[in-house]
Write a structure and sequence with these properties.
8 strands, disordered N terminus, 3-stranded antiparallel sheet, alpha+beta, single chain
Length: 204
């Protein structure tokens, strides 16, 4: 489910502003995207001379894998841009704005309780993401550990790592690798114990 970013301010919540991309404007109006970009560039020059906020610039990845620039226009900036276009094109863009705003209103909380529930859902998503990141920082496959520590992965014996895990109270986790299928994950402390054992043997 798509969630909106909510910002807490005195008296309630507000969502991030809706914008329309220059790509979508090109698609709606049948204009070439580079021509819409040119019109936005000229509009930004006018904004700059008037001391007004300029159109925000972003990038997108095309089907060919290359990255190109695009603009993200607010409703007012879009209306300024469309002033020089034909009546039919202005109607198309205006109707699209109506759809975007209806979609935004449908996703906004209708009460303070709804806002709190949406905020709680966002917080929960962030916490789950943080847990995944924390886990990734503590659990390693043999190849990932070897790569990050500049060693040869073939030097590590999975059966010894597994035995050390059981001996020191760590489970052996699993993950999916696109090249090797299911692979074992060992806690970083197990690798450290393994490394210390190897160093001890080298010294003796």
């Amino acid at each position: 489910m798509e969630t909106k970013e909510l910002t807490l301010f005195e008296g309630g919540f507000e969502s991030t502003p809706v914008t329309m991309s220059s790509q979508e404007i090109a698609s709606l109006t049948g204009k070439r995207h580079d021509h819409v970009l040119r019109d936005c560039d000229e509009l930004n020059e006018s904004y700059e001379s008037l001391g007004l906020p300029k159109i925000g610039e972003s990038t997108y990845k095309a089907e060919n894998g290359h990255t190109y620039r695009e603009y993200r226009l607010t409703r007012m900036q879009c209306f300024d841009l469309m002033t020089g276009y034909s009546r039919e094109l202005r109607i198309k863009v205006n109707r699209r704005w109506e759809e975007l705003e209806k979609k935004e209103r449908a996703g906004l909380p209708t009460s303070y309780a709804d806002a709190l529930r949406q905020l709680a859902a966002v917080v929960e998503q962030n916490e789950q993401q943080q847990k995944r990141l924390d886990k990734a920082a503590q659990w390693y496959s043999i190849k990932r550990w070897a790569k990050e520590h500049g060693t040869n992965w073939r030097a590590y014996r999975w059966n010894i790592l597994k035995a050390l895990s059981h001996e020191h109270g760590y489970k052996v986790d699993k993950t999916f690798d696109s090249n090797y299928g299911e692979v074992n994950l060992y806690h970083r402390r197990v690798f450290e114990i393994y490394e210390n054992g190897r160093k001890w043997k080298q010294l003796h």
